[in-house]
Amino acid sequence: MQSLGYIPKTSFLSRTLLLLMLSFSINAAGIESETIDIPVIEGARVFAKFDDKTPVVINYFTSVTENGVIAFYNKSYGEPIQQERKRGRLTLHYQKDLQQIRVVISQQNKLRQVDIIVDKRTVEP
What we know:
The protein has 125 residues and is α+β, with helices and mostly antiparallel strands. 26% of the residues lie in helices and 36% in strands.
């Protein structure tokens, strides 16, 4: 019987290849895709959502006031560890578990644009 060129001919190489393949399959099975659930205000018009890997990003428009958006995310994440306003945009920084969360609120005509970015890195307060 003719052997294929890519199959190792020695027992050592066969075992090494088998262990290598087994190692890759165990590592792949051990990787869990962690779902990050980002709360969005009811009635929001989501125009971008990137949630297949971190950092997770969601962008939406809402008619809720800036104070209403702040209250919604304070209820979800607690008090912000930092906040700053630049060029008319308010950025709230939250830390929950091992997640760094940024909520950016800006005025867009009669609506508020809300951008949420969630990463798994921790933030120094």
